[in-house]
Amino acid sequence: MRITELLKAESIELGVVVSSKDDAVNKLTGLMEAGGRLYDRAGYKEGILAREALGSTAVGDGIAIPHAKVAAVKEPGLAAITVPEGVDYDAFDGSLANLIFMIAAPAEGADVHLEALARLSTLLMTPNFKDNLIHASDKDEFLKIIDDAETDKYGAAEEKEDSDPADSERDKDSGSGRDEKKNGQGNAGSGQSGYRLLAVTACPTGIAHTYMAAENLEGTAKKMGITLKAETDGSGGAQNVLTREEILQAEAIIVAADREIEMARFDGKPVLQVPVADGIHKAKELIERAVSGQVPVYHHAGGGERASASAGGKDSTGRKIYKHLMNGVSHMLPFVIGGGILIALAFLLDDYSVNPSNFGKNTPLAAYLKTIGDQALGMMLPVLSGYIAMSIADRPGLAVGFVSGIVAKMGMTFANPDGGAVNAGFLGALFAGFAGGYLVLGLKKVFSKLPKSLEGIKPVLLYPVLGILLGTAVTTFINPYMGLINDGLTNLLNSMGGTSRIVLGMILGGMMSIDMGGPFNKASYVFGTAQLAEGNFEVMAAVMAGGMVPPIAIGLCTVLFKRKFTEKECQSGIVNFIMGLSFITEGAIPFAASDPLRVIPSCAIGAAVAGGLSMFFGCTLRAPHGGIFVLPTIGNPLGYFLAVLIGAAAGCVVLSVLKKDLKEEERIG
User: Fold this and answer.
1) Which member of 113, 203, 209, 619 is catalytic?
2) Which of 261, 328, 353, 487 has the fewest other C-beta atoms within 10 Å?
């Protein structure tokens, strides 16, 4: 199947004027419907928006490729618009999208269209192809440009129907045709693979970004004079598969993937693991890192043959649970941060003397900010449980998890359906999300036996009605037990004396620095935000203090001990002050990645000191983020400032002792 077979003239519109991303989506879904590709336009648009919620499909340089693989699609197809004035599509590089292709793929059925979609994604990485399409005078010219480009790169003839299937399969597995055409590399007859680097690319849907990342990595490597072969783990299965011999001889492997891929085969090899977007946007940087000799060696944990690329190990039950939890947390945090800071501002701007019992709402402005903040913060638990359930069961799980989270927030019990009887809180919402998600998975399995003629009623009737009923019933049953645990934890924290509270602060602060954005960091931060909702403001203060320290400690060290860092690192160190003061712990990651055995322990010690001192000084924090910018809302701001400063100084001193001075040529080069 060729690209032009998927793109009908009815689904193309040139010179479009749209004012927003949503307008562009509406226009494209309408064009897709006009091409007769959809059962249900609304369901298809829902799939498009769900994919955008995971991250913008704008790939930069004026191109966006929204896509969805859902049951609302009747047959595979494309729609396209050109937008000469551009539209903001949330591109990573800030560019306006001038060329947008929308992809529709059916949830089930043959995948004969995938090769054409992969070809389109690859062609979009070709210089001048985009500009030629944008300046096409009419639809016929638009289609001809695509057809000519596909013919030039892949040839005019499709594979013959009577060709030997075994030959086709061998070509697919070996990737020989793709490699020779694209790389012109390999040492024929030498018995050597000829590839210095290998790569694997995979995106959640396996339709567009998978192939764009592979094309960009191979093309960039060729320009740099480095041989590289990329395996694409797309929706139709793996293509251009890496051989055992190639893996054995490769210097390093780049895994640019947002879903699980086969990782056991890379055991003992240097593996650089990044999101698939980095393969599209940061190919040169990835290749330079891969050949630097500083990529960590991957050690497979054993067990299954497939593993999550981001985890770097087997996709165990614990890992799956963590991924579902983080999906909920990542969607919850904007509500927590936005609502928490607005509430903090309300207290900052209010007049306590007017009515101490109504502090936060005594003045009109404070009352407005406090009300909005309360509403935003009140959404955190339903959003958490909703997106956990959605991560487990896809879109049918969202409503079930969301409503179950509301039931947990209300503290509803069978004895008191109006709620308020128990405080299920954060733990109750966690349970509601997982229970709702797995209940919907069970319903999917049960309803899979229904006739295909009833397929359409599942997402609009069966899953919502039965899912919400069962999910809320389970949550209502478990709420009293979650309330007991939650109240016990709160009472334990409130009963802690001086020494135990300091130890808690040190543990939470140190966790913020152990992996800087990883599981320990997230666990500490989530605990802090959960306790913020319970009114334990000193926990959040210790967490933020610990998170601010690593970048500041490194920045101090680059200023006071310049000979231990390269000139480039010293320049980056200045930026770390800003990131640390803004509570962006990740500013320390580049330094930790280049020298983990020295940087991570130093930062962890400094962060633990800061967290412990914050508890010792009795500091409190009502806002879940903001760093120095929310300092006026901190209880005992002077003590908090000292805690961060002393912690950063401690981390700086330890790092200066552990790191050795560099030679002059090492500092410059």
Assistant:
1) 203
2) 353
What pLDDT, on the 0 to 100 scale, is given for residue 124?
Answer: 77
In the chain, the amino acid numbered 127 is P
- Band of pLDDT at residue 65, cut at 50, 70 and 90: confident
Neighbours of 109 (CB within 10 A): 12
Structure tokens at 52: 């955008």
pLDDT at 62: 85
603 belongs to the catalytic site:
no
Percentage of the chain beyond pLDDT 70 is: 82
User: Which single residue is written with the structure tokens 């192809």?
Assistant: 129
Report residue 100: phi and psi, to 5°: -130, 120
pLDDT in tens, 384-403: 899 999 888 888 899 999 99
Alpha helices in 183-230, H assignment, sequence order:
209-223
* Number of helices and strands in the chain (H, E): 27, 16
Looking at 67, 113, 324, 625, which residue is catalytic? 67
Task: Cite the DSSP H helix spans in 250-290.
Answer: 276-281, 283-290
Residue recorded with tokens 């959605």: 390
Specify which residues 82 forms β-bridges with. Answer: 99
Instruction: Let me know if 203 is a catalytic residue.
Output: yes
Paired strand residues for 232: 201, 239
Contact call for residues 87 and 17 (beta carbons, < 8 A): no
**Where is mean pLDDT largest: 387-396, 416-425, 484-493, 542-551?**
542-551
Q: Select from 438, 335, 437 the least CA-distant residue to 387.
A: 437
Nearest Cα to 471, choosing from 418, 392, 416?
Answer: 392
Q: Where on the phi/psi map is residue 155: left (φ > 0), alpha (ψ -120 to 50), or beta?
A: left
Residue 331, CA distances (Å) to 142, 250, 278 in order: 39, 39, 22
Task: Give the relative orientation of helices 114-123 and 209-223 as an angle to the nearest 10 degrees.
Answer: 40
Who has greater pLDDT, 665 or 306?
665
181, 278, 331 from 308: Cα distances, Å: 31, 17, 21
| Angstrom distances, CA of residue 230 to CA of 226, 275, 283, 639 | 13, 15, 12, 53
DSSP state of 264: G
Record the tokens describing residue 243, joined without a space: 């051989």
Rounded to an integer, what distance in angstroms lies between the CA atom of residue 453 and that of residue 423?
44
Which of 353, 344, 352, 433 lies closest to 393, judged by CA? 433
Determine the 3-state secondary structure of 103 from DSSP.
strand
CB 78 within 8 A of CB 104: yes
User: Which among 124, 150, 284, 272 has a CA at the least distance from the CA of 208?
Assistant: 124
Is the C-alpha dihedral spanning 149, 155, 157, 159 positive or negative? negative
* pLDDT-derived band at 140, boundaries 50, 70, 90: very high
Which of helix, strand or coil describes residue 317?
A: helix
CA dihedral sign, ordered 173, 177, 178, 183: positive
More confident residue, 184 or 212: 212
408 closest CA partner among 310, 347, 336, 486 = 486
- CB-based contacts of 522, cutoff 8 Å, min separation 6: 326, 329
Report the alpha-carbon distance of residue 57 to residue 52 in Å, rounded.
6
Joined tokens for residue 39: 């059962």
Closest alpha carbon to 403 in 357, 440, 373: 440
User: Which single residue is written with the structure tokens 């940061």?
Assistant: 282
How far is residue 219's CA from residue 225's CA, in Å, rounded to a whole number?
A: 10
Please give the Cα distance from 15 to 86 (Å, whole number).
10
For residue 372, is it left (φ>0), alpha (ψ between -120 and 50) or beta?
A: alpha
Measuring CA to CA, which residue among 373, 484, 471, 468 is closest to residue 425? 484
Helix or strand or coil: residue 213? helix
